[in-house]
Amino acid sequence: MDSNWSLDSHTILYGVFGDPIRHSKSPIMLNRAFREVGLNAAYGAFHILPGTLKEAVNGIRALGFRGVNVTIPHKVELMEYLDEIDEGARQIGAVNTIVNEKGRLIGYNTDGIGYVRSLKEETGIDLAGKRVLMLGAGGAARGVGYALAKEGAARITIANRTKERAEELAEYMARFTEAEGIGLEQVAQAASEADLIVNNTSVGMHPNVDEVPMDTALIREGIVVSDLVYNPLVTKFLREAQQRGAAIHSGLGMFIYQGAYAFEYWTGLPAPIQAMREVVEQSFNE
Ligand code: NAP
Asked: Whole-angstrom Cα distance, residue 210 to residue 240?
């Protein structure tokens, strides 16, 4: 870590916009990253209430922020206020990262690509030709599904509590790969064929740590099971999957890598992944 790191009148500014925002781990993660590579930069958390997003985005231009992450509930509305939207973000229909190129605001989505990069690095899975069962059909599922399809997943089955949402998402996904939407109670067949099962629902997240999104007796040995939830770091779903002989992948990796891509888009430097992971893991133990 660079011990000469300090803030002054040259400091380049970054931040995250969301509502709620005080729980966000992004500031500690990104500030640690800037410090690790010795950049004179600072990253703050901004509580942006519904109805004020447009003004906040204009503030990025006015104040000359280099970059901003955007989280719930603003990822879709934000698209109206940007100058340019990257192809991936346009396909997903949501932006989580803004790059300010001399006053032109460009929107990216690093959630899906961050997810896939962490999944591949942590489990070694080659997604080409694989069959995937995705549980959940919300905003995160859209980005994850798009990125998995781009990696060559041969078939994606989306199971959701509200079946209509699974069917809608499958219709969208069918542009990129073979896709099907089913109800959450119909997962047995898809689970028996899946190489990868991903929990894209919030089931199992703190404080409901005793819940699982599907019957884990359906999980086969040797497959990969992944959970977007990262609080707790290892959910009950992942614990039971591991007991059944699956390789497991926690949601923390997605969080780290979506931030890593944002860091790389903003700075052009490779993200110091290890330091970013360490500081976030440490914050869970405090
Ligand atoms: P969202 O748009 O609100 O979607 C929530 C999904 O969970 C929907 O499919 C919903 O089903 C389902 N769901 C919620 N409660 C359920 C229950 N009790 N039983 C069955 N299904 C239930 O949320 P999101 O933004 O996609 O986020 C989903 C999860 O991913 C959250 O836990 C979030 O923290 C996590 N996430 C993690 C990262 C990361 O970096 N690791 C990034 C983004 C999101 P219905 O359609 O039936 O309501």
From this structure: 11
